[in-house]
Design brief:
single chain, 79 residues, rod-shaped
């Protein structure tokens, strides 16, 4: 019985890690798109003082996207 429980636990781990990896990929993609949109808005005519904040937020979201890609990449290499 213990062997079946172990196999079940590992199968659950593989399944949930796949879901987590897919969520990280989606987050990274969305964060990159958001960062790009914020960067565009920061550079439009009339952005004024809000442009600085948008540009800073854009950089932050690019870093979030990059960290998601770094976390996902090792998992993809093992598959």
């Amino acid at each position: 019985m213990q062997l079946r429980e172990s196999v079940s636990a590992y199968e659950s781990l593989l399944s949930t890690s796949k879901s987590y990896r897919n969520a990280l990929i989606a987050l990274s993609t969305a964060s990159t798109a958001l960062a790009g949109a914020m960067g565009e808005c920061a550079r439009v005519k009339g952005a004024g003082e809000a442009g600085e904040g948008l540009l800073a937020a854009s950089g932050l979201h690019y870093m979030v996207a990059n960290s998601g890609q770094v976390l996902v990449r090792p998992a993809l290499l093992r598959l």
